[in-house]
Amino acid sequence: MSVAQDEGSGSAAGPPVTATGFASYLFTQGAWFLAFGLQMVLFPYLVRVVLREDEIRFGLAQMSMQLPTVLLILIGGFVADRSDTRRTVLVGCAMCALAFVGLGVFVAGGRLTYGLMIAYALIIGTIGAFVTPARDSLLNRVAPGGVHQAVAFASLAQFGGQILGMGLATLAPLLGIPGLLFGQALLMGSAAVAAMRIRPRPAGPPRIRAGGALRFMAGEIGGGFQATIASPVIGPVILCSIGMGICFMGAFAVLLPLIVQTYFPSDLVGADRTRIATALGIFNLVFWVGSMISASLLLRLGHVRRKGATYLAALLTGASVLVLCAIPMPFWLLCGLNFVWGLGGGVAMTLGRSLVQQYAPPDKVARVLSIFTLGMMGGAPAGAVVYGVLAHAIGPHAAILFPGLGMFAIVGSVALLSRLRHLDEAVPQAG
Question: In this structure, is residue 238 part of a structural domain?
Fold first, then answer.
């Protein structure tokens, strides 16, 4: 008997299609990731190239961007299950717009400091810890059709937004860094306006609080963990997401930008340094182009029968790319490898989130999704610091072998010890 037959779907087919503002939701999703696609290029550029911080301080800066998620994402999931998620998304977008304006003012005035970048990273990370579970749980309540199709559309909006953002980053020599930051702020303001037009279907009634607030919150979060552990599907996916955080996100945030920087002389000054931002933008862009292509193919295919095996194969693709990146090669070939990783990444990110959405109990969706996000983001800060130290000691090319081989070990263990690779959904789940 397949896992799909063992465990019923956690989400129902839903009520008839209503005017939920799904298009506005997708615009908000795309605008958020467009702004953060820009940030994926601008933040490392400002820390590493403009401020000229070493590998260790660069890793610490990247950790500061991810640390608030580790500390607050479970609280964010609890809040999302018991609050107006649309309002949380709206306020979060508006606060990000203010943060982008503030950073742009400091950069334009030549007053950028390392401490300011750390403070900015902590602020943006904190906002994201509450917006992410709210936006993810909102998807079920605005989706016009099935969850899998809605997740695929949301993934396309995410990948498309990131591609546009990184494409804009390649224009840094023309537009200037302050201009790009002010553009981010304008985009986030537009996302806040779009969030006002979202009309989600009503959520189920919140559970009545018993006992003190902290005890109740702990019990609610614990319920999310119990649902995760009890599921033969969600548990292994969460374990893989932890590996993605430690091995993939840490390497993507620290080691790969350092490898890209090795293609340029260390004595570049003035406007010539923006060529590094262009290269970082191109390098990131090809990953997300690959991700969008594979997510689009998943959308066209519709039902994927062997989701678990496909998910694990996509993760192995990323691990293989990291190992190959240890070999010095022309920049175009490095970008080609990153494109292949993106193809696998689009599959892994879409199917991973789709599996969690599908198998999570309806009253615990936001909490289980926050645990999924915690698994992915929780390992990223540690990975960023460790890889920064490793790169400083042995160089980024040698250091990147560690996350590549580590991911091979994690995926291999999940494939051998869990039933995820046997997941078979030949018969669609009952509503």
Answer: yes
